[in-house]
Amino acid sequence: MNTNLWNRWRYTLYAPIYDRIVRSFNTSRQRSIELLALKAGERVLLIGAGTGEDLQFIPEGVKITAVDITPAMVEQICRKAKFLNRPVEAAVMDGQALELPSESFDAVVLHLILAVIPDPIACIQESARVLKPGGRVVVFDKFLPEKEQPSLQRRLANLVANFAFSDINRKLESIAAAAPLTLLHEEPAVYGRFGYKIALYEKP
User: Fold this and answer.
1) What is the number of H-type helices and E-type strands within the chain?
2) What residue ranges define each of the domains in the chain, with the CATH number in brackets?
3) Which residue spans within the chain are E strands per DSSP?
């Protein structure tokens, strides 16, 4: 059920109200982006950027590219960029197969996308591909601890969660291990008891 077509359909429905749904995550969004220590002149890529809630937390002078699989979300990004008076290159694009050159970004932001996108391994590998050596990736999402197996109750709950929003049983360590990235820092995020956390990686 979790396909690009399904994601476009359901997130087109969510687009008008999405900010109200995810605004409680903004403290963690801000903290996550702070960990990147972005500097003026650097290029940052937001994959699965949604409505562009991250834009307000990116320092002035940083060059922003924001992509999402859903055209309605990209329209929201453009509106928000105009409201914030921030130049943003926004495009409809598949985070599993980025139409972007290799080693072209200083940082990549993966907020609430690795648990949504059909193939998170392809997404993390594409993130690493477009990063310059020494570039950083920051992840904020909900994950199951690596050594924990989902209970029957959680597996049943995931049938509903994956249909409506995202997979609640993915493991970040297994996903990140598929890309040439080094973990620099990890910390719990808002709603940490539900598995939400922030992780910062670097491309050697």
Assistant:
1) 7, 7
2) 4-202 (3.40.50.150)
3) 43-47, 63-68, 88-92, 105-111, 131-142, 182-188, 196-202
Q: How far apart are CA 7 and CA 148, in angstroms?
A: 27
CA distance linking residue 179 with residue 121, whole number of Å: 8
CA distances 31 to 53, 131, 139, 146, 174, Å, are: 13, 21, 11, 23, 24
Sequence-separated (6 or more) residues with CB below 8 Å from residue 20:
none
Q: Which two tokens stand for residue 109?
A: 């932001």
Asked whether the beta carbons of 117 and 94 are under 8 A apart, the reply is: no
* Per-residue model confidence as pLDDT tens digits over 72-85: 999 999 999 999 99
Whole-model pTM: value is 0.95
Phi-psi region of 48 (alpha: psi -120 to 50; beta: other; left: phi over 0): left
